[in-house]
Amino acid sequence: MRLLLILALVWLLGTCQSSRPEVPQDFEWTTWTNVAAGYSLDVPDVYDADVEDGGNAVFFRWRGTVPTKIYWTDLESAKGHGLWVGEEPTGPTTLALQPAMRYDYTHCDGPFCSHMTSFVIERGDRWLALEFRSEGELNHVNQRILASLILLPADYGD
Hints:
- By secondary structure, this protein is α+β, with helices and mostly antiparallel strands.
- The protein has a single domain (28-151), classed as Mog1/PsbP, alpha/beta/alpha sandwich (Protein Transport Mog1p, Chain A), CATH 3.40.1000.
- Helix content is 18%, strand content 46%.
- A hairpin with a 4-residue loop joins strand 2 and strand 3.
- It is globular, with a radius of gyration of 17 Å.
């Protein structure tokens, strides 16, 4: 009986779907630049940038959620983090005026799962992925973040 209770609890936790983050209402826009990864984008000033992996991953946090992430990664690392690798693309799109692929998939961290919309471009032997925690179409804040992404010239910051 105890084993059945444990199995039921594990199953229940394994199927938890986290809720969609709310959209900030009162904020100003600020520009975030990552020279090493070669991009710039606008984000709400209420987002806190949490830089990880030596600047290769930036998690934009707000009110205990991570509505936006951006990765500068290779395929092996992306796969290890459970990103878009191995998923079927939703279709072709553009990112920073470059040909890109869109992926809509579910990402799970432990027992919690979130729907992700990811826009991915190849840059040499690496990939730039702008991800939004969303379900369906992007909200107006995410649309502006997506539209603001600029790829920096290779000699920027020299």
